């Protein structure tokens, strides 16, 4: 027998082609495809009906007469094996569950009645697979209500699918080719089937799944078969089932597309210069900066997704929170120095709370630290939190300076600092929430928000994209309110000195390399007395 190569992929396919006969000559379904699978992987293949997905799996199993391919298992070429030896290791599970025999036990033992398995063991099917072993397998996949003596034709669709999967798993193949085995099942049964496959993969089996359902986040890689080509896609583009979307509409933007986008910005900058608005240079510079930052983040996220390491994902999120803190302080005009710690703490607390609720309670992915889910979600939540916090802090300190006489009067009448600052806190939180409320009001009628648009463009099902967008909008609304309120509750006392005397610190200097340290340093008492706002100074 040919020796296997321990360094090779578990399964490799190259030069995979299919030509179907037709009245006008052979019709090419796909040509010269390549594919690999490692032990423990679950790889999903999606695509439109008729794209050739089932044909591809039957080619891998050497079952299709119209296909040609070079196939290897652990480096051993399929040509060195009999068809039965190959299919003993690479098992094809069709969409339709076919269970033959007078009982469920007979249907499950069917593969063990064939010579390929009897020859290896020298035992009968009954000896290889006793009732106790079948019972244990069925119980482990949630089929404890199925009697082994039951006629398999009496099983429901979900029961038949799981029994068929159990039969295949009991043959212990190295590679499982699952052809839409969860199609037609209700969500609970489909999830059970997914859990069974995930358990098999965790034990070293390599699994290829044809799926039309939205991604269940169990796949390590995803591909789309379209126009005879097999290309790797993202989790969003993989969700093709449910509401009529059968193929990805994602189109790659080339370099010329980016150049034209920059030309549009330059045209806008030219108009700004002609109108003497004074924002032309800033518009061009920040557009270039945005492009560099986005492309860099794309490279980083792609690397983090490939690593799929929870600690690296958490590290990147921490860096994003730190960057959000710096940007918030830079945008919060009128805010005093030394506020970094408060803003960082507020963002960290509220982001941890909101990410936990959204991922663990609402979305409930199998892996909470899934990079392709948690990193974009963090970015969208932080982006809105930064704008709200900066606006809220600016408004709060402006209001506290404008209300100097009111605050002095309230303090003189016995108000506490909280009671004196409360009107400014309320107006600031309310102002910060207005953009979010406007988004909720117009979403789905006037606008298709960014997350929903992005998912639809990348091939996501529109109905599923709408649900994700709603969750994001509500999370943003909650996050902005809580983050703004928590931050203002932490900072309002900065406008009062000992003995509850009113003194608003001076605004922080414009952020430069020289003044960067001021982000972390409170204004001194001398600076506050000389440059701060108090009731006496306001009344002069």
From TrEMBL:
All copies of domain ABC transporter, residue ranges: 11-252
GO molecular function: ATP binding; ATP hydrolysis activity
TM annotation in the entry: 255-275, 311-329, 341-362, 374-393, 470-492
Highest taxon listed in the record's lineage: Bacteria
EC number from the UniProt entry: 3.6.3.27
Keywords tagged on the record: ATP-binding, Hydrolase, Membrane, Nucleotide-binding, Transmembrane, Transmembrane helix
Location in or out of the cell: Membrane
Enzyme class per UniProt: hydrolase
Membrane topology field: Multi-pass membrane protein
Pfam families: ABC_tran, UPF0014
One cellular-component annotation, GO: plasma membrane
Similarity section: Belongs to the UPF0014 family.
Listed name of the protein: ABC transporter, UDP-Glucose Exporter ATP-binding protein/putative permease
Species for this entry: Bifidobacterium magnum
């Amino acid at each position: 027998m040919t020796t296997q190569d321990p360094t090779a992929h578990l399964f490799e396919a190259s030069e995979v082609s299919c030509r179907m006969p037709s009245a006008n000559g052979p019709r090419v379904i796909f040509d010269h495809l390549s594919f690999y699978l490692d032990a423990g992987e679950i790889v999903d293949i999606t695509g439109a009906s008729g794209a050739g997905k089932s044909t591809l799996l039957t080619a891998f199993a050497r079952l299709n007469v119209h296909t040609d391919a070079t196939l290897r298992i652990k480096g051993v070429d399929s040509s060195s094996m009999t068809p039965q030896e190959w299919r003993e290791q690479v098992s094809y599970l069709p969409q339709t569950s076919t269970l033959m025999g007078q009982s469920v036990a007979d249907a499950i033992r069917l593969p063990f009645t064939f010579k390929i398995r009897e020859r290896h063991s020298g035992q009968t099917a009954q000896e290889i697979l006793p009732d106790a072993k079948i019972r244990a397998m069925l119980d482990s996949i949630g089929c404890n209500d199925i009697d082994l003596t039951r006629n398999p034709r009496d099983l429901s669709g979900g029961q038949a699918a799981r029994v068929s999967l159990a039969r295949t798993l009991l043959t212990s193949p190295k590679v499982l080719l699952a052809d839409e085995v969860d199609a037609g099942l209700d969500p609970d049964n489909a999830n059970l089937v997914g859990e069974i496959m995930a358990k098999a993969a965790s034990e070293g089996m390599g699994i290829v799944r044809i799926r039309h359902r939205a991604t269940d986040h169990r796949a390590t890689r995803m591909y789309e078969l379209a126009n005879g080509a097999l290309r790797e896609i993202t989790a969003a583009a993989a969700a093709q089932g449910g509401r009529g979307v059968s193929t990805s509409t994602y189109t790659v933007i080339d370099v010329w597309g980016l150049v034209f986008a920059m030309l549009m910005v330059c045209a806008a900058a030219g108009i700004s210069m002609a109108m003497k608005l004074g924002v032309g240079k800033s518009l061009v510079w920040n557009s270039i900066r945005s492009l560099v930052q986005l492309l860099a983040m794309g490279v980083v996220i792609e690397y983090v997704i490939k690593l799929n390491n929870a600690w690296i994902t958490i590290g990147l999120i921490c860096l994003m929170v730190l960057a959000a803190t710096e940007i918030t302080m830079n945008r919060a005009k009128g805010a005093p120095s030394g506020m970094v710690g408060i803003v960082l703490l507020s963002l960290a607390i509220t982001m941890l709370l909101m990410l936990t609720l959204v991922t663990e309670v609402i979305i409930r992915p199998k892996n909470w630290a899934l990079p392709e889910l948690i990193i974009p979600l963090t970015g969208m939540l932080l982006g809105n939190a930064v704008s709200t916090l900066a606006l809220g802090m600016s408004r709060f300190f402006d209001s506290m300076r404008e209300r100097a006489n009111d605050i002095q009067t309230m303090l003189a009448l016995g108000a506490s600092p909280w009671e004196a600052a409360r009107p400014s806190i309320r107006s600031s939180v309310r102002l910060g929430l207005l953009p979010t409320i406007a988004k909720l009001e117009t979403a789905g009628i006037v606008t298709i928000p960014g997350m929903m648009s992005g998912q639809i463009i990348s091939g996501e099902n529109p109905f599923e994209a709408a649900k994700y967008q709603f969750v994001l909008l509500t999370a943003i609304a909650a996050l902005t309110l809580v983050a703004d309120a928590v931050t203002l509750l932490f900072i309002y006392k900065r406008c009062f000195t000992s003995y509850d005397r009113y003194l608003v610190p001076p605004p922080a200097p414009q952020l430069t390399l020289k003044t960067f340290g001021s982000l972390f340093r409170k204004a001194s008492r001398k600076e506050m007395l000389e440059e701060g706002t108090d009731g006496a100074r306001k009344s002069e």
